[in-house]
Amino acid sequence: MSEWQPKILAILCNWCSYAGADLAGVSRMQYPPNVRVVRIPCSGRVDPLMILKGLQSGFDGVLVSGCHPGDCHYISGNFVARRRFAVLKPLLEFVGVEPDRVQFSWISAGEGERFAQVVTKVTEDIRKIGPAKRLVKGA
Amino acid sequence: MNDTERSAARMRSPEGIRGSLHDFLKIAVDKGAVDSVLAPVKVPAENSYAWILMNDPAVIESASPVAPVMPVQGAKALKSLTRKGKGESRILAVMRPCEIRAGIELMKLNQVHFDNIVLVSYDCPGAVPFQDYVKDPGFSEESFGKMIASGRPGEENIKPACGICTEFSIVDSDIHFGYFGVDEGSAFVIPVSEQGAELLDAIGLDRDAKIADWESEISSIRDKRTKKRTETLSAAGERIKGLDGLINAFRKCIGCHNCMSVCPICYCRQCYFDSEVSKKDPDFIFEIAEKRGAMAFPRDKVMFHAGRMTHMSLSCVSCGFCTDACPTGIPVAEIFSYMADITQPTFEYIAGKNNGEPLPLRKFEKKELPLVHEIVKSAEGEEGSDE
Ligand code: SF4
Ligand code: FES
After folding, report:
1. Chain B residues within an 8 Å CB radius of A69
2. ipTM given for this complex
3. Which of A13, B231, B233, B326 is the most exposed place for a label (fewest CB within 10 A)?
4. Do the chains contact at B339 and A90, CB–CB below 8 Å?
5. Between A and B, how many residue pairs show a Cβ–Cβ distance under 8 A?
6. At CA B86, angle to CA B82 and CA B87, rounded to 5?
């Protein structure tokens, strides 16, 4: 309908979700072209500030994806990421960011199809919410 | 410490808690139980207090262990002394409960080392807002003196953070001085840790007092405070919630970052928000200005506060230094405490409460705590995790 296309920042762990995205590409799976991928060494590397900065610099949503619990290359990075996320969530709400704008998932290197599904779902969720009000609007 | 029957010593002084604490410092140094003392001393200009590390009896004589104002967070003083590890001399530090809790958080962050430190806390009546004190030291001294003499926590002329503080009494120190609700001029000297108990033995204080009454007094005050805190913070949250509310709350912010530099928890040598990388390219700023038709400076105020919150809210002890330091009177502490009271309970954590408990982000559970689980689950979308 409308012309607006959400821009989504996907922060993907090198050891799993990034490879999952790769597999999705190599297997020519279709998924919305709205994501811009940033590769990181581990989901445990994600500072909540990265997510805030993403939203601030014009992304409409952020997807962070790491290895399945128990499968982190560095053993516990994603467990810590999960906790950090639990801190960030209420804060996002406090600063007025709709909860669905920032999402979190576990995708392994073999799950190309799941990657396509997650991206499709996240894109649809964010499309429904609409464009992000910038965090720094006028302030 | 789980206290079925906590035993304490009793000290008396015509000058009340201040006198007892002062005597205690002198005895501890005199008997060689510690080498030196870290406590506030009134500055010669008479209009503030400073942390002084002292071992000269004449200087200790001039100490004011219970000072009306908090010009520097005690945990910061402790950090200056112990950030590189255990020092040579054994120090007895007298600090407010929130200073000790901040010290405990810093210890967990490896910025403070307790090995040679004996921490002494006391029932804290609150502190006078720094600006009020500077404006009228005489009045502040008087009202604070009355507050202490009343043997109850203060209600007027104290920092807003103190008025809603629920951790105003015994904390994870070594020795605690309890005097709320105790007969005038008298204070209980309560050993909290083993080290504290040994020190009391070393200086020959007999522990034969029963403190059950004091304990129930503290818990009844705490109940009232908890209620007040919840009411105050949830009202603040309602007022400020959302981007517009936040922009409004920080409209007066001049971006001085005072709130951050006085924060005991913000220990980073360089804050991201002071760094070059955090500064936007002028071209980018022009682009936005063009789009919007106008542009406000300083930039990124809400980003600074929200970002700082993500970094320290799990360790925030609600000491109120940020509010005290804000030149434009923004209730920074209220806003940060609101968030802290949401994030900390998620991990069943109270910052600085227990020095044996790891920081929430330094540990994890395979099957997460119910609240963490709920938040993460809802964020993972329908697919969910496969645990
Ligand atoms: S102290 Fe006040 S004015 Fe300065 S940065 Fe903090 S909130 Fe802004
Ligand atoms: S290596 Fe993938 S989440 Fe840690």
Report:
1. 366, 385-387
2. 0.90
3. B231
4. yes
5. 140
6. 75
